[in-house]
Amino acid sequence: MSRLTSLLRDWDAGSVSVRRRILHEFTAQNRLRRTAPELDAEFADAASLFLTRLTSWLRLSYPNC
Q1: Which of 7, 29, 36, 58 has its CA 20 to 30 A from that of 20?
Q2: Helix, strand or coil for residue 46?
Q3: Rounded distance, CA 65 to CA 63, Å?
């Protein structure tokens, strides 16, 4: 869980450029994982914590889309 904790800490404290870098790294590392259970296995059943932060940020950053 330490990898996820570090990721969430960096995300929460990060600027727009840091969050974009994290998102880019996340998509590159998880390109072959196609399902939520695969992500949960990678992130110790806590992938939804990161995905919730991600979707919230996207909604706040791009409200008209």
Answers
A1: 36
A2: coil
A3: 6
